[in-house]
């Protein structure tokens, strides 16, 4: 849920109505400021950039049939990753280096973690240690 | 389980023929004895009692994997099923001396699930119920919640031992040491304790070991095994009669190694696939038709027959229709 809160904060500051309305946002802004075409272009570019950032900002990993999917992802530092359990069996998300650990997640429960530093973060389910995944954090 | 006995390739040293009497169920319980890994019928009586179990023999019951709190499609009525099992135990011809529960008492380690377990276990007319924890009993806060309810000797430890009727019982915990990409383990501290505990037991004493996850590798890819089980079994080999009772895999399997017989039990919650079952990639609850479910859940009666190293086992499904 927090990740949506994050997006609405971004929308408020005007340049990251990232997901689905960057063009609309741009044109509304442009109408409000008809002389600011250069600024408008800048805003448009920022919106495009934030679109890319936005897509990367909320990667979600599903847990289905005792497996993480995708099993391996690469994100930028500062990215929040979300895991959702679709199984009837509880699972956990536990970093191999113990940097993060979820509570037991029952069906449809979610866990989020923001990766702030670069590195390779292998993780597994403490209940089913054969379930493994990795998050690469790269600038 | 019926399928398992029907498999043409059914003989596998690590998965010998199961002891369940499902395949040949005719309304009478068959007592199997295990000699060199080959199950052999001792006799049959009505009502799950055992002819071999004369009155002076010591009999107890194993239940496993009750998963109180589970309410998904694979079994929407855990409590109803448990009550049928309790009625079966209460109706045994020879009253068992105790019940052992080989773990996953709860589904999610919630206080209310442990509370419900304690209440329901009282419906079994029995003096003592001994449990070992399953990994479902060790969620979030480790074994703190479990031990609040099931600390058997006041040591605040999940492993313990006790003697009853000349049998040395050992409860072990192999649900805390999960390491990435490997099977679970007992851990050095517990192995050291086991060594110390067994030092005081004569080799002629029958030993019964309880542990949730099998102490032999049933299927490594699903984590159905204990990485350092051999360390424990090594300590048990000098004993003339060792019976290891496990849960976790929700089905009856057995393995015999010399004087050590290892048995997994049926669950009282839901079935799981056979080890590595084709077409099923993961060890999750298996949905079967409602009319089949009770045939895959059940209890086990064990009898220590004096003068025999093997215990007599009867696996009884809750639905015998």
Q: Mind explaining what this structure looks like?
A:
- The complex is a heterodimer of chains A (139) and B (321).
- Chain A is an alpha/beta fold and 139 residues long.
- Helices cover 31% and strands 28% of the residues of chain A.
- Chain A has three helices and eight strands.
- Chain A has a four-stranded mixed beta sheet, with no helix packed on it. In chain A, strands 3-8-7-5 form a four-stranded mixed beta sheet, with no helix packed on it.
- Chain A starts with a helix and ends with a strand.
- The N terminus of chain A is likely disordered.
- By secondary structure, chain B is of the alpha/beta class.
- In chain B, 19% of the residues lie in helices and 22% in strands.
- Chain B starts with a helix and ends with a strand.
- The interface between A and B is medium-sized, with 23 and 25 residues.
Topology (elements, then pairings):
The complex is a heterodimer of chains A (139) and B (321).
Chain A lengths: L1 H11 L9 H11 L4 H21 L2 E5 L2 E3 L2 E4 L3 E7 L8 E2 L14 E6 L3 E6 L7 E6 L2
Parallel strand pairs in A: 1-4, 3-8
Antiparallel strand pairs in A: 1-2, 4-6, 5-7, 7-8
Helix pairs in contact in A: 2-3
Chain B lengths: L1 H5 L21 E8 L2 E9 L11 E6 L14 H13 L8 E3 L9 H11 L7 E3 L12 H7 L9 E5 L2 E5 L16 H11 L8 E4 L18 H8 L5 E5 L6 E5 L2 E5 L25 H7 L1 E7 L6 E7 L4
Parallel strand pairs in B: 3-4, 4-5, 7-8, 8-9, 9-11
Antiparallel strand pairs in B: 1-2, 3-12, 6-7, 10-11, 12-13
Q: Spell out the helices and strands of chain B N to C.
A: HEEEHEHEHEEHEHEEEHEE
Strand content of chain B: 15-25%
CATH topology of the largest domain in chain A: Immunoglobulin-like
- Our count of helices of chain A gives 3
**CATH 4th-level superfamily of the largest domain in chain A:** Cupredoxins -  blue copper proteins
Strand content of chain A: 25-35%
How many β-strand runs of chain A? 8
Q: Please write the string of helix (H) and strand (E) elements of chain A.
A: HHHEEEEEEEE
Average pLDDT number of chain B: 86
Task: Specify the CATH architecture of the largest domain in chain A.
Answer: Sandwich
Kindly report the spatial arrangement of strands forming the biggest sheet of chain A. Answer: 2-1-4-6
